[in-house]
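Worked Example 4.2. Consider the chain below.
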Amino acid sequence: MHEIIERQFLYDKNKNILNNIDSEQRIYRIFSLSRFEEMIQNQELVLVRPSMWDDPFENFFLNVNVIDTSGELGSLQSIKDSWYGQCWTTNADTDSMWRIYSPNKDGVRVSTTVGKLFDAIYDENDKWASLKYFIGKVEYKTKEEISDFMQNTSFSSIAIGGQNDGFARLLCVKREAFTHENEVRILISKTPEEMEKDNSCIHKIKIDFEKLFDDICLNPRLPDSEYQKLRCRLISKTQLPIIQSDLYKFDLQPIRLN
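Applying the procedure from the previous section yields the following C-alpha coordinates:
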Protein backbone atom coordinates (compact mmCIF):
# COMPACT_ATOMS: atom_id res chain seq x y z
CA MET A 1 0.00 0.00 0.00
CA HIS A 2 2.84 2.44 0.83
CA GLU A 3 4.34 1.74 -2.61
CA ILE A 4 1.05 2.65 -4.29
CA ILE A 5 0.77 5.91 -2.36
CA GLU A 6 4.40 6.81 -3.06
CA ARG A 7 3.98 6.07 -6.78
CA GLN A 8 0.83 8.22 -6.84
CA PHE A 9 2.65 11.08 -5.11
CA LEU A 10 5.36 11.05 -7.77
CA TYR A 11 2.94 10.76 -10.69
CA ASP A 12 2.92 13.64 -13.19
CA LYS A 13 -0.77 14.34 -13.69
CA ASN A 14 -0.01 16.16 -16.94
CA LYS A 15 0.31 12.69 -18.49
CA ASN A 16 -3.47 12.51 -18.18
CA ILE A 17 -3.91 15.55 -20.44
CA LEU A 18 -4.42 13.69 -23.70
CA ASN A 19 -3.91 14.31 -27.41
CA ASN A 20 -1.45 17.19 -27.21
CA ILE A 21 -3.81 19.87 -25.96
CA ASP A 22 -2.13 22.80 -24.20
CA SER A 23 -3.07 23.44 -20.57
CA GLU A 24 -3.45 27.14 -21.45
CA GLN A 25 -5.98 26.40 -24.22
CA ARG A 26 -9.21 28.32 -23.59
CA ILE A 27 -12.33 26.16 -23.56
CA TYR A 28 -16.03 26.89 -23.33
CA ARG A 29 -19.32 25.24 -22.44
CA ILE A 30 -22.91 26.39 -22.87
CA PHE A 31 -25.30 25.41 -20.07
CA SER A 32 -29.06 25.75 -20.02
CA LEU A 33 -30.13 28.47 -17.59
CA SER A 34 -31.56 25.96 -15.10
CA ARG A 35 -28.39 23.80 -15.13
CA PHE A 36 -26.23 26.90 -14.82
CA GLU A 37 -28.09 28.13 -11.75
CA GLU A 38 -27.93 24.64 -10.22
CA MET A 39 -24.17 24.62 -10.78
CA ILE A 40 -23.77 27.93 -8.94
CA GLN A 41 -26.08 26.94 -6.10
CA ASN A 42 -24.56 23.49 -5.55
CA GLN A 43 -20.99 24.36 -6.57
CA GLU A 44 -20.85 21.16 -8.60
CA LEU A 45 -20.01 19.94 -12.07
CA VAL A 46 -22.22 17.06 -13.16
CA LEU A 47 -20.68 14.39 -15.39
CA VAL A 48 -22.77 11.67 -17.05
CA ARG A 49 -22.18 8.27 -18.54
CA PRO A 50 -21.40 8.50 -22.27
CA SER A 51 -24.38 6.20 -22.88
CA MET A 52 -26.56 9.23 -22.09
CA TRP A 53 -25.09 11.16 -25.04
CA ASP A 54 -27.02 11.04 -28.32
CA ASP A 55 -24.37 9.53 -30.59
CA PRO A 56 -24.55 5.69 -30.46
CA PHE A 57 -20.84 5.59 -31.33
CA GLU A 58 -19.88 7.21 -28.02
CA ASN A 59 -17.63 4.85 -26.06
CA PHE A 60 -17.78 2.54 -29.09
CA PHE A 61 -14.98 0.28 -27.87
CA LEU A 62 -16.75 -0.71 -24.65
CA ASN A 63 -20.17 -0.82 -26.34
CA VAL A 64 -19.42 -4.14 -27.99
CA ASN A 65 -18.97 -7.61 -26.51
CA VAL A 66 -15.59 -9.29 -26.12
CA ILE A 67 -14.85 -12.78 -27.49
CA ASP A 68 -12.48 -15.03 -25.54
CA THR A 69 -10.19 -17.71 -27.00
CA SER A 70 -12.96 -20.32 -26.76
CA GLY A 71 -15.37 -18.14 -28.74
CA GLU A 72 -17.51 -17.24 -25.74
CA LEU A 73 -19.02 -13.77 -25.65
CA GLY A 74 -18.50 -11.58 -22.59
CA SER A 75 -19.87 -8.19 -21.64
CA LEU A 76 -17.83 -5.07 -20.94
CA GLN A 77 -20.80 -3.39 -19.26
CA SER A 78 -19.18 -2.98 -15.84
CA ILE A 79 -16.16 -1.16 -17.32
CA LYS A 80 -18.39 0.86 -19.65
CA ASP A 81 -20.59 2.01 -16.75
CA SER A 82 -17.58 3.13 -14.70
CA TRP A 83 -16.82 6.04 -17.07
CA TYR A 84 -18.30 9.54 -16.79
CA GLY A 85 -17.68 12.60 -18.91
CA GLN A 86 -18.53 16.19 -19.72
CA CYS A 87 -18.05 17.94 -23.06
CA TRP A 88 -16.40 21.31 -23.68
CA THR A 89 -15.26 23.08 -26.84
CA THR A 90 -12.50 25.30 -28.13
CA ASN A 91 -15.14 27.21 -30.13
CA ALA A 92 -15.41 30.61 -28.48
CA ASP A 93 -18.44 31.91 -30.34
CA THR A 94 -20.14 30.04 -33.18
CA ASP A 95 -23.69 30.16 -34.44
CA SER A 96 -24.03 26.38 -34.50
CA MET A 97 -23.03 25.96 -30.84
CA TRP A 98 -25.48 28.63 -29.68
CA ARG A 99 -28.32 27.14 -31.72
CA ILE A 100 -27.66 23.55 -30.62
CA TYR A 101 -27.02 24.16 -26.93
CA SER A 102 -29.14 27.26 -26.37
CA PRO A 103 -32.27 26.66 -28.48
CA ASN A 104 -34.42 28.82 -26.20
CA LYS A 105 -31.87 31.65 -26.29
CA ASP A 106 -31.35 31.52 -22.52
CA GLY A 107 -28.16 29.45 -22.54
CA VAL A 108 -25.19 30.60 -20.51
CA ARG A 109 -21.63 30.13 -21.74
CA VAL A 110 -18.71 29.94 -19.33
CA SER A 111 -15.02 29.94 -20.15
CA THR A 112 -11.92 28.55 -18.47
CA THR A 113 -8.69 26.84 -19.51
CA VAL A 114 -7.80 23.17 -19.91
CA GLY A 115 -5.41 23.41 -16.97
CA LYS A 116 -7.87 25.08 -14.61
CA LEU A 117 -10.62 22.61 -15.44
CA PHE A 118 -8.33 19.61 -15.03
CA ASP A 119 -7.06 20.94 -11.69
CA ALA A 120 -10.68 21.27 -10.57
CA ILE A 121 -11.54 17.61 -11.24
CA TYR A 122 -8.20 15.98 -10.36
CA ASP A 123 -8.15 14.87 -6.73
CA GLU A 124 -4.48 14.58 -5.75
CA ASN A 125 -5.48 13.01 -2.42
CA ASP A 126 -7.05 10.08 -4.26
CA LYS A 127 -4.53 7.23 -4.35
CA TRP A 128 -6.03 6.07 -7.66
CA ALA A 129 -6.01 9.54 -9.23
CA SER A 130 -3.60 8.62 -12.04
CA LEU A 131 -6.06 5.95 -13.22
CA LYS A 132 -9.24 7.97 -12.83
CA TYR A 133 -8.99 11.58 -14.03
CA PHE A 134 -8.38 12.65 -17.63
CA ILE A 135 -8.92 15.57 -19.98
CA GLY A 136 -8.37 15.33 -23.71
CA LYS A 137 -8.99 16.85 -27.11
CA VAL A 138 -11.38 14.82 -29.24
CA GLU A 139 -9.98 13.32 -32.43
CA TYR A 140 -12.34 12.86 -35.37
CA LYS A 141 -12.30 9.67 -37.46
CA THR A 142 -14.33 8.29 -40.34
CA LYS A 143 -16.65 5.37 -39.63
CA GLU A 144 -14.34 3.24 -41.79
CA GLU A 145 -11.33 4.21 -39.67
CA ILE A 146 -13.21 3.26 -36.51
CA SER A 147 -14.29 -0.07 -38.03
CA ASP A 148 -10.73 -0.86 -39.12
CA PHE A 149 -9.46 -0.04 -35.64
CA MET A 150 -12.00 -2.39 -34.05
CA GLN A 151 -11.05 -5.23 -36.41
CA ASN A 152 -7.35 -4.87 -35.66
CA THR A 153 -7.43 -4.20 -31.91
CA SER A 154 -7.91 -6.50 -28.93
CA PHE A 155 -9.24 -5.66 -25.50
CA SER A 156 -5.95 -6.65 -23.87
CA SER A 157 -3.95 -4.30 -26.13
CA ILE A 158 -5.98 -1.35 -24.80
CA ALA A 159 -6.07 -2.53 -21.17
CA ILE A 160 -2.38 -3.48 -21.05
CA GLY A 161 -0.54 -1.94 -18.14
CA GLY A 162 -3.77 -1.12 -16.33
CA GLN A 163 -3.24 2.63 -16.70
CA ASN A 164 -6.75 3.33 -18.06
CA ASP A 165 -5.47 5.96 -20.49
CA GLY A 166 -6.22 3.60 -23.38
CA PHE A 167 -9.92 3.66 -22.57
CA ALA A 168 -9.80 7.43 -21.96
CA ARG A 169 -8.20 8.04 -25.36
CA LEU A 170 -10.93 6.01 -27.08
CA LEU A 171 -13.53 8.10 -25.29
CA CYS A 172 -11.90 11.04 -27.08
CA VAL A 173 -12.76 9.68 -30.53
CA LYS A 174 -15.80 10.77 -32.53
CA ARG A 175 -16.93 10.49 -36.12
CA GLU A 176 -16.06 13.19 -38.63
CA ALA A 177 -19.67 14.39 -38.78
CA PHE A 178 -19.03 16.12 -35.44
CA THR A 179 -15.85 18.00 -36.31
CA HIS A 180 -17.63 21.36 -36.00
CA GLU A 181 -17.79 20.81 -32.23
CA ASN A 182 -13.98 21.00 -31.73
CA GLU A 183 -14.56 19.14 -28.52
CA VAL A 184 -12.55 18.71 -25.33
CA ARG A 185 -13.67 16.19 -22.70
CA ILE A 186 -13.17 15.70 -19.03
CA LEU A 187 -13.37 12.02 -18.08
CA ILE A 188 -13.54 10.16 -14.79
CA SER A 189 -13.41 6.42 -14.20
CA LYS A 190 -14.81 5.19 -10.89
CA THR A 191 -13.26 2.22 -9.11
CA PRO A 192 -15.26 -1.00 -8.57
CA GLU A 193 -15.58 -0.10 -4.89
CA GLU A 194 -17.00 3.31 -5.77
CA MET A 195 -19.41 1.71 -8.22
CA GLU A 196 -20.69 -0.62 -5.51
CA LYS A 197 -21.50 2.39 -3.34
CA ASP A 198 -23.00 4.51 -6.10
CA ASN A 199 -24.01 3.12 -9.49
CA SER A 200 -25.79 6.29 -10.60
CA CYS A 201 -25.72 7.51 -14.20
CA ILE A 202 -24.29 10.83 -13.02
CA HIS A 203 -21.19 11.79 -11.07
CA LYS A 204 -20.87 15.11 -9.23
CA ILE A 205 -17.64 16.98 -8.56
CA LYS A 206 -17.36 19.85 -6.09
CA ILE A 207 -15.93 23.04 -7.58
CA ASP A 208 -15.24 26.64 -6.62
CA PHE A 209 -17.34 28.35 -9.28
CA GLU A 210 -15.72 31.79 -8.97
CA LYS A 211 -12.18 30.39 -9.23
CA LEU A 212 -12.80 27.91 -12.01
CA PHE A 213 -14.52 30.18 -14.52
CA ASP A 214 -13.33 33.47 -16.01
CA ASP A 215 -16.49 35.03 -17.43
CA ILE A 216 -20.10 34.48 -18.42
CA CYS A 217 -21.52 35.11 -21.88
CA LEU A 218 -25.19 35.23 -22.89
CA ASN A 219 -26.88 34.29 -26.15
CA PRO A 220 -26.34 36.72 -29.06
CA ARG A 221 -29.97 36.32 -30.19
CA LEU A 222 -31.41 37.75 -26.98
CA PRO A 223 -33.13 41.12 -27.46
CA ASP A 224 -31.44 43.80 -25.40
CA SER A 225 -34.31 43.97 -22.91
CA GLU A 226 -34.12 40.21 -22.30
CA TYR A 227 -30.35 40.33 -22.05
CA GLN A 228 -30.52 43.04 -19.39
CA LYS A 229 -33.18 41.12 -17.48
CA LEU A 230 -31.15 37.90 -17.50
CA ARG A 231 -27.96 39.76 -16.65
CA CYS A 232 -29.62 41.32 -13.58
CA ARG A 233 -30.85 37.89 -12.54
CA LEU A 234 -27.34 36.45 -12.68
CA ILE A 235 -25.52 39.40 -11.11
CA SER A 236 -27.12 38.46 -7.80
CA LYS A 237 -25.57 34.98 -8.02
CA THR A 238 -21.98 35.61 -9.15
CA GLN A 239 -19.18 38.18 -9.20
CA LEU A 240 -17.92 37.07 -12.62
CA PRO A 241 -18.12 39.49 -15.58
CA ILE A 242 -21.32 39.01 -17.59
CA ILE A 243 -21.41 39.96 -21.27
CA GLN A 244 -23.48 39.20 -24.35
CA SER A 245 -22.00 37.59 -27.43
CA ASP A 246 -21.62 40.15 -30.22
CA LEU A 247 -22.02 37.49 -32.92
CA TYR A 248 -25.18 39.15 -34.26
CA LYS A 249 -24.21 42.73 -33.59
CA PHE A 250 -24.35 44.70 -36.84
CA ASP A 251 -21.85 47.53 -36.52
CA LEU A 252 -20.59 48.24 -40.04
CA GLN A 253 -19.80 51.83 -40.95
CA PRO A 254 -21.90 53.69 -43.57
CA ILE A 255 -20.64 53.47 -47.15
CA ARG A 256 -19.74 56.47 -49.26
CA LEU A 257 -22.26 57.59 -51.83
CA ASN A 258 -19.48 58.25 -54.38
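Residues 7-93+111-211 form one domain. Residues 1-8 have pLDDT under 50 and may be disordered. Compare this with Example 4.1 before moving on.
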